[in-house]
Amino acid sequence: MVAAASVSRYAALVSLLSLVVSANAAGSRLPERGLLDLLVDPICRRIADETTSATKVYYPGTPKYVDAIHHWSASSTQLSDCVVEPATAQDVGRVLQIVGETRTPFAVKGGGHSTNPGFSSTQGVHISMAAFSQVTYDASSQTAQVGAGLVWDDVYEALEPYAVNVVGGRVSGVGVAGFTLGGGFSWKTNQYGLTVDTVEAYELVKPDGTVSTVTVASDPELFSGLKGGLNNFGIVTKFTLKTHPQTNVWGGIITFTANSIPEVTAATAEFSATVTDPKASIITTYNFLAGSPGISLLLFYDWPTPPPGIFDRFLEIPHLTRNVKTRTFLDLVKAAPSNVQANQRGRFHMVPVLEYTPSFINAVANQSEYWGTRLSLLPNLRTGTFFSYAVEPFLPNIYTHNAHSTAYPYSRSRFFSPFNIYFSWLNPLDDDLFQRSILESAQALLDAAQGEGQSNLGEVPLYPNYAAGTTPVEVIYGSNLAGLRTLKARVDPDNVMGLAGGFKL
Questions:
Q1: Residue 462 has what DSSP assignment?
Q2: Cys bridge to 206: 110, 234, 436, 450, which one at CB 3.0-4.6 A?
Q3: By the 8 A CB rule, do 421 and 442 touch?
Q4: Residue 36 has what pLDDT?
Q5: Cβ neighbours of residue 129 under 8 Å, at least 6 residues apart?
Q6: 36 with 46: CB under 8 angstroms?
Q7: Percent of the chain that is helix, strand, coil (3-state, to 5)
Q8: In terms of DSSP H, where are the helices of 26-121?
């Protein structure tokens, strides 16, 4: 929620802007960069002066400022003193040096898909990675260099002419940087592991401003720490990812109304328990929308046609809509209407699941209807608009694709699937209510899983890209935490990255 003080500050800035425009119309001369002499924070002015002309600095009241601070979830947007859009890794380094010297709060935004306020937004200096938007494919090494300012849609489109792909996001609009630095569960995870398992190198701007290429050979501890360590060790400007051959794929989305929920639940539990083909994957999402429960089902097969039997049971169930066919990978990713909830307030959270049993999935369906009924516009006149519980089965060997240690997951010896919960709503005054409710729902499902024998789930790491911002870092990094803190002390002794939000070590 944007604080009242921030709103007042923004209103004051806009008022000053109108005065400046009037003065300019009367013939007054202003600096080329805009409102520097009248209303620019001195740190922002210093950044503008000490970086190259290719780096842009935007101020409140300008369209590019508004675009840059925008997040997929409205509750994650904050009004910053300025936006800095660095053009080079070296300029990113100078920005880090300045905010570090002055102890200025800052944020780094890649795709802007986080639902945790303050994780990629700030009232201080907002660093936009938008200029880091290149994708370069190297056929000889079978890798792709991917800029940190991209969303996965851009990456898939750029690689499509080469008939190769990377292990990336499953729905449209998700940013490369946060997704990769947090772990990364993909349509291709059953085959190749998490996205962090496919990173070959990072171009990292360290907190002292130096630019380094980090590989397993150059700095194995830092290379491991960046794999799930989020923004704790600096700012990544470029990822080098392994690529894999990519044909057309088969899949898409099917929606079901309430009367089909029992059949879809049974089919989902059967798929999770019996399908071992690593090219096959599903996400069964139990939704509550417009006063009614329902299901949106995403099907994926990494080949133009799936073998008989894998998805047949789903295809036989009466449906509301169906858009399933052979298509490009990018077209499949765009098939899910993931951006429908954009620009509303929202929050993610998760529960680690060892097994998607029929009883657990029934508990999921019940939670969806319970909270949807209690907090929706219909029927209770609350401001909730959408309640989503995503069942995401994976094969039990997904953590064996990488023999090296990673910050996340801290243990690869025990299998678990992520399970995502998402609530969206309209009224900023309801932020605390929805945050409490999503945590309560997650606890109820954790209890349900443990009640049927899924033991020691409290010792399983929460996926940082789904976890609510109140989650303790001990729950995310577990036995890795001490080592990560030692690494942090080496790489960032002045705790510059502690000035940015996120799960801090």
A1: P
A2: 234
A3: yes
A4: 46
A5: 86, 108, 109, 110, 147, 148, 149, 177, 235, 237
A6: no
A7: 40, 20, 40
A8: 36-39, 42-50, 63-69, 89-102
Using an 8 Å Cβ cutoff, are 234 and 492 in contact? yes
| Model confidence at 22: pLDDT above 60 | no
**Structure-block tokens of residue 320:** 């509301």
Given a contact cutoff of 8 angstroms between Cβ atoms, the answer to whether 425 and 1 are in contact is: no
Q: How far apart are CA 238 and CA 251, in angstroms?
A: 31
Q: What is the full DSSP assignment across 287-336?
A: EEETTEEEEEEEEEESSSSPPTTSSHHHHTS--SEEEEEEE-HHHHHHHS
Would the CA dihedral through 56, 59, 125, 180 be positive or negative? negative
Integer Cα distance of 396 and 390 in angstroms: 18
- What predicted TM-score, i.e. pTM, was given to this entire model? 0.91
**Contact 93/205 with Cβ under 8 angstroms?**
yes
- Are the beta carbons of 216 and 450 closer than 8 angstroms? no
Two tokens at 135? Answer: 């994708």
Question: Contact at 8 Å (CB) between 242 and 321?
Answer: no
Residue 255 to residues 40, 118, 295, 409: CA-CA distances in angstroms? 50, 34, 6, 32
Report d(CA 312, CA 242) in Å as an integer.
Answer: 33
Between the alpha carbon of residue 397 and those of residues 190, 257, 353, the distances in Å are: 8, 33, 14
Residue-wise pLDDT for 283-323, tens only, equals 999 999 988 999 999 999 999 999 999 999 999 999 999 99
> Given the structure tokens 């097994």, which residue do they identify?
355
